Amino acid sequence: MKRLSTIVWAAIAFLTIASAAGAQEYTLRLHHFLPATSTIPAKGLAPWAARIEEASEGRLKIELYPSMQLGGAPPQLFDQAKDGVVDIIWTVLGYTPGRFPKSEVFETPFMVTNGQDTSRAFQEYVETYAMDEFSGVKLIAAHTHGPGLFHMKEPLNSLEDLAGTKVRGGSRIISQMLANLGAEPIGMPLPSVPEALTTGVISGTTIPWEVTTAFRISELVGTHTGFSGTNGLYTQTFALVMNEASYNGLPEDLRAIIDANSGAGLAAQFGAAMDAGDIIGRKVAQDRGNLIITLDEAETERWKRAAQPTIDNWIAQVPDGQMLYDAAKALVAKYSQ
């Protein structure tokens, strides 16, 4: 009887330990470069982290660290995830020039339609053609912003008005495009833009409407120029990625929750959030009385012709460039119907 009691208590102890192990909590750190109030941090990353915690019943928590609070500079974010400095990062791929050559095709001129549709296209493109560029990390989502435009101190009514102006370019491809259009591109991460505008280092910047509110760009410039037609002048590419060891170290059920909240659906949600942010950013500029210019179809065609060498150079520099460019265009058209 005593032996039976010992066995019973041993079994209870084993089940208690197993249950405690199964209920173990995990905390992951997510690092990024924008203020917490910016569109994707507030409307994308925070809700995503909340969904993960809810689905895991509190076992998996994601702590958000905006504005490079954990140290380093924006171009270092991808390696912070790859090297395990942090668990998860969200970043602009163009902050590390030449590292994502196949993904860059989505930044080429007049590729983007809107954030949601182009993000769906970009996610499928990466999964089909560019996963090697994400070797060493767990890709959670890849996405873009909506149509990019110019925010300038002086009106930009024609291609000639851009000539010789110093304009911030957010990536290698965008800077090449600016040079082909006649501007003097100045490369810098987004957080540096307000000071550069204030001090006169640049006279304008290329960013979408949605991010102008977080950095009060409409207070620093007086004019904004966009383009006619379905496709915007440019976009930038983004990725939410996770350290492989952090992912593999989670129990199978928690990895499944991460997987269920990854991929095309999340990419589309991020793109849609940026589209909604574009509406807000434009309204802020309108309410301030800023000049908002939409170049007509004839002038837009002039910009397309001037920007074409950017596309040609990308195709020439990347293996299978023409095939990849055509595939990207086809995916954008597929999701933008």
Tell me what you see in this structure:
The structure is a single chain. It contains 13 helices and eleven strands. Mean pLDDT is 93; it is low at 10-21. α2 (39-55) packs antiparallel against α11 (264-287) and α6 (172-181) packs across α12. It is globular, with a radius of gyration of 23 Å. The strands form two sheets. A six-stranded mixed beta sheet has the order 7-6-8-5-9-11. A five-stranded mixed beta sheet has the order 2-1-3-10-4. The chain is α/β, with parallel strands linked by helices and 337 residues long. The protein folds into two domains: 26-144 and 236-277, D-Maltodextrin-Binding Protein, domain 2; 149-234 and 290-335, D-Maltodextrin-Binding Protein, domain 2 (3-Layer(aba) Sandwich).
Secondary structure blueprint with pairings:
Layout (H helix, E strand, L loop, with lengths): L1 H21 L3 E6 L7 H17 L4 E6 L11 H6 L5 E5 L22 H15 L7 E8 L4 E4 L6 H4 L3 E4 L2 H10 L2 E4 L5 H7 L4 E4 L9 H4 L2 E5 L9 E7 H5 L3 H9 L3 H24 L3 E5 L1 H21 L3 H15 L2
Parallel strand pairs: 1-2, 1-3, 6-7, 6-8, 9-11
Antiparallel strand pairs: 3-10, 4-10, 5-8, 5-9
Helix pairs in contact: 2-11, 4-11, 4-13, 6-12, 12-13
